[in-house]
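Appendix B, record 7
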Amino acid sequence: MAMANGQSLRERKAEELKRETQLQLALVGRKKVLEKGKREKQQKKKPLGDLLTRLSLHGIQNAVIRPAYTHVPRSRNLDKQLAGLLNHMYVRYPVPSFLYDCCRKETGDPFECMHDLYRQWFVCLAQGGSFPKLVKGFMTSREASVFLGAPAANRIHENVWWAKMRMAGIPLGTIEKLNERVFAQYFFDDPYGRLAEVIQFFARYHAQMDRVSFGEITDFLAWKLRNDRRFSLKGRTLSSVTKLTNEWHVLMQKAKLGQSIEWKGLGIPPWEYEAKQRIWSVEELRSNRDLMNEGRKQKHCVYSYVHWCVAGRSAVFSLRAYRKVVKDYSEEGMLIWDKTLEQTRITIEINSSRRIVQVRGPLNRAATDEEKGILRMWAGEKGVS
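C-alpha cells (predicted):
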C-alpha cells in the first residue's frame, strides 16, 4: 500500500475522517449557542404578576421605594427582567450582582434558609445603610468592604469566606480552590473557630506548598472537618499536618467498602478513541466501590470523594490507555479491543459546573502531554471545560 510521510493511505483517510467529525461537532455546538441566543431574543416580556411569583421578598416588603405596578420591563431576558424589577422596587445605590439571588425563589443555595438575612443585606446596600454595622459579628469592617467586590459567580456564603481569606492574604487562585474544596459547604458563623484556623494555616503556609501537596492537604482537611468534630489545626505546623496527611492517604487506600453506595453523576456515557498505538477510554465512576478500586490502583485518596459525589458537587472519571490488541469482533463486525493490557491511567474530577478541577495520575503525579491531549479531545466532545 502506498505510504506518504510514514502513513498509509488508510491511516490518512482515518485521520481526515476524525478531523471532519471534530469539525462537525464544533459546528453543532456553535449552532446550539446561536439557537439559544436566538431563543433568548424571542422571549416575551413576562407579566408583572408572573415576575412577582418568581421573587421571594419576605421581610423586605416594607422597604419598597417604588410600587411594582409602575415598572416597565426593558429586556426580554427573564433574568434581566427580574433584576430590573428589583432595581425599580428597592435600589438607589449599586448592589453586588451575587446578592440578587437571595430575592429569587429556588436558587439551589444549600443555605437558602439564610436568605431572609441576606435580603436585609441587599436592602441595606441598595438604600445606603451602614453595611459594616449590619454584618458586625459575621465580618469585620474591612472584610465587609472586600466582600462587595467578591466574584459574581460565587454564592453569598462563599463570598463571605472569600472576603475573610482575601483579608488574610491568601492569593486569589488559592482562595478559589479552598472555597470549592472546603468552605462552600459551611455557613460562616464558625462557632468553634475551626474554619478560621484553616484560613490562618493556609495564610501562613500556602507559599511552602507545591500543587500536589496543596491538593493532598486540602483533601485531608476537608475530610477531617466533615468526619472528626474534635479535630483542630490549633498549634499545628506544616510538617505535622503533612505527616497526618500522609497517614490519612494510606488509610484511604486501605479503606473497606462497607455499605454499597451509588449516585447518578453527570450521566456522560463511556467514550473510546483509537490512536495509532493505543486505545483510550473514559468512563464515569459512580459508586463507592468504583472510587475504592480507583484509589487502590492509583494509590491516591479519591475514595474520600464519595461524599462530594453523592451530593452532586463532584463527578469522577477515569481515563485509561490500553495496548492496541484486538480481542474479538462483534456481531456487526466491529473490533472489540482487549482491555486487560492497561498502560496508563489518570483520574479526573469535574465540578457541578462541568469544569475539570483536578487531574491526578498514580501517586498524584501530573498528567503527561499525551494524556492532556486525549483529555482535551474528550472534554471538547462532551462539553466539559
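Remarks on this record: The chain has a mean pLDDT of 82. The radius of gyration is 26 Å.
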